[in-house]
Amino acid sequence: MATLMTDLDGIARLAETRAAENEDFKDYLCTGDTEEVDAWVQELNAAISPQIDCTACGNCCRVALVRVAPEERSIFARHFNLTEAEAAERYLSEGLSGDTLMNISPCVFLCGNRCGVYEDRFAVCRDFPYLHQPAFTKRLFNVLSHYGSCPIIYNVIEALKLRSGFIRGT
């Protein structure tokens, strides 16, 4: 496997220059066998993720929307010594889809590049970048929205372009 790109500024620059290419790639992947694409993504993710130290990055905590399940509201309350209602009023908002979202960015729990409530982190944070989940082609819009900010996603997508036989510039 090629050397992995972890420089956040470099990834962001390349994401800008490859926006049209990534749209073409999204269209290309959606014409393929979804189970085969899932297998490739999961294999690439399993090979790439262990090589990237998320605690040296923490960028997802700076840019991602954090969905908070109702049962997870107690994390805020406990951490800030507030009631759940006070914590919800101060740190949470209802999104357009009805989901509860953290209304502060970067995440209030981010300490340097590490999660201050790592053991109690939200399910959405625990699962990010979601590459282990099935139906990858159905989630491409969301995945590609993090292409320029997450080294794991960036490297998996670039490896997937090679693995799938995608030809750049077509």
Keywords:
170 residues; mainly alpha; 2 domains; two-stranded antiparallel sheet; elongated
Q: What would you say about this model in short?
A:
This protein has 170 residues and is mainly α. It folds into two domains: 82 residues, no CATH class; 63 residues, no CATH class. The protein is built from nine helices and four strands.
Give your account of this protein's structure.
This protein is mainly α. It folds into two domains: 9-54 and 129-164, no CATH class; 65-127, no CATH class. The protein has nine helices and four strands. Strands 1-2 form a two-stranded antiparallel ribbon. Helix 3 (34-48) crosses helix 9 (151-164). The longest helix is centred in the first third of the chain and has 15 residues, at 34-48. The model has no long low-confidence stretch (mean pLDDT 92).
Total beta-strand segments: 4
Q: Could you tell me the radius of gyration in angstroms? A: 17 Å
Summarize the biggest pleated sheet. 2 strands, antiparallel
What portion of residues is helical? 40-55%
Q: Average pLDDT value?
A: 92
Strand order of the largest sheet: 1-2
